[in-house]
Specification:
With 249 residues, the chain is mainly alpha-helical. It has helices at 2-8, 11-28, 31-46, 51-68, 71-87, 91-106, 111-127, 131-148, 151-167, 171-187, 191-207, 211-228, 236-248. The longest helix is centred in the N-terminal third of the chain and has 18 residues, at 11-28.
Length: 249
């Protein structure tokens, strides 16, 4: 249910459900239940960009998973914290958390945790201009996601590969990766993933000098963001995309 609400953009419903789950876990004295509920609440607060609340819950989850000796849960929580850091422009700090998550995941044999850590740390390397290791990590994440059959993870890895290539000046390749990500996101109904991959594809098209195509792709992303409407309390995506369209003229 949480994943369905997350994909479809029903943030308020997700928040209500996870608050109830946390309350129930606290009443039962379930540490593992509290850890998972804090993780879920962090995700529910994430996309409306309520970063302070989101980070609080992710940090609570990381602390509880570490206390429980659960390196997989701990790695996922660190990845989530890293994503908040990126939102706040603290990319070097994001990479520190991402690398720590990667170290934890490598020792667990858990393919999903390892793939996420590879993808996110690779993305931060791309932002920091370290193109070669960024592409290598995102490619490893993609191969691992395909190996374990996680289509959603494959979509994120493709989008990460696109961004790494875009930041390396390989815009044609980037466009293809972002398009592949969009097709997968659309296939399983992830509205936020669709917007993100369209926005990124538009960025790559614009950098390649294909302004008309970029405009069409950004408009498609804006249409989906507007359709989500009140499910995105922060109205983050429409503002980000409108800025791009306005700058394009």
């Amino acid at each position: 249910m949480e994943e369905y609400l997350d994909r479809r953009g029903h943030r308020n419903d997700s928040l209500a459900m996870q608050k109830t789950a946390l309350w129930a876990a606290e009443c039962q004295g379930s540490t593992i239940g509290q850890a998972h509920a804090h993780s879920a609440l962090g995700r529910a607060y994430h996309w409306p960009r309520l970063d302070k609340k989101s980070r609080h819950h992710y940090e609570q989850a990381a602390r509880l998973f570490e206390t429980l000796g659960n390196p997989v849960g701990h790695a996922h929580a660190l990845i989530d914290i890293s994503h908040i850091c990126e939102h706040q422009g603290k990319v070097p700090e994001a990479l520190i958390h991402g690398d720590r998550a990667l170290q934890l995941a490598e020792g667990t044999g858990d393919g999903r945790a390892l793939a996420r850590a590879l993808y996110f740390s690779g993305w931060y390397l791309a932002i920091l201009g370290q193109a070669a290791p960024a592409i290598a990590r995102c490619r490893d994440a993609l191969l691992l996601e395909r190996d374990i059959g996680d289509v959603r993870g494959e979509a994120f890895a493709l989008d990460g590969l696109g961004s790494a290539h875009h930041r390396s000046g390989l815009h044609t390749e980037a466009v293809a990766f972002h398009q592949g990500a969009f097709i997968l996101f659309e296939g399983f109904g992830d509205r936020y993933g669709q917007i993100k991959s369209l926005r990124n594809r538009g960025d790559a098209l614009h950098a390649a000098g294909r302004a008309d195509e970029a405009r069409a792709v950004w408009q498609q992303a804006l249409d989906i963001a507007i359709e989500i409407g009140d499910a995105d309390p922060g109205h983050v995506f429409p503002d980000l995309i409108r800025d791009r369209l306005t700058a394009l003229g």
